[in-house]
Design goal:
single chain, 108 residues, 0% strand, signal, Lipoprotein
């Protein structure tokens, strides 16, 4: 009788499908976290390079510039999500930059 063997196979297929779909939620959140982490890592690198380039002609010592730029990049990624960082304005970054400059001993 053919119907009997088909039912366990269907049940197993259904179980495997449900099990696989249940894991998709975790995969999606892991993927979102991976994007967030990757974006923030890239942001720190690009922000730091851009910050150093912009400050190069300002006369501040290179080591202090590096300290301020690193500090600001780190603080910004702690404070903002990846989507917020994508549209971050210079005005929003300025208070963080000033705070880092003060921490580094530079006049503001």
């Amino acid at each position: 009788m053919t119907p009997f063997p088909i039912r366990p196979i269907r049940a197993a297929s259904l179980f495997l499908t449900v099990f696989a779909l249940a894991g998709c939620g975790e995969g999606a959140s892991d993927m979102g976290k991976g994007f967030e982490d990757g974006f923030k890592s890239e942001f720190v690198e690009k922000f730091d390079n851009s910050c150093r380039g912009a400050a190069a002609g300002g006369g501040a010592p290179a080591d202090k510039v590096a300290e301020v730029c690193n500090c600001a990049a780190d603080e910004l990624v702690k404070k903002y999500s990846a989507s917020e960082l994508m549209s971050l304005s210079p005005e929003a970054a300025m208070p963080v930059m000033k705070e880092c400059a003060v921490k580094s001993g530079l006049p503001v």
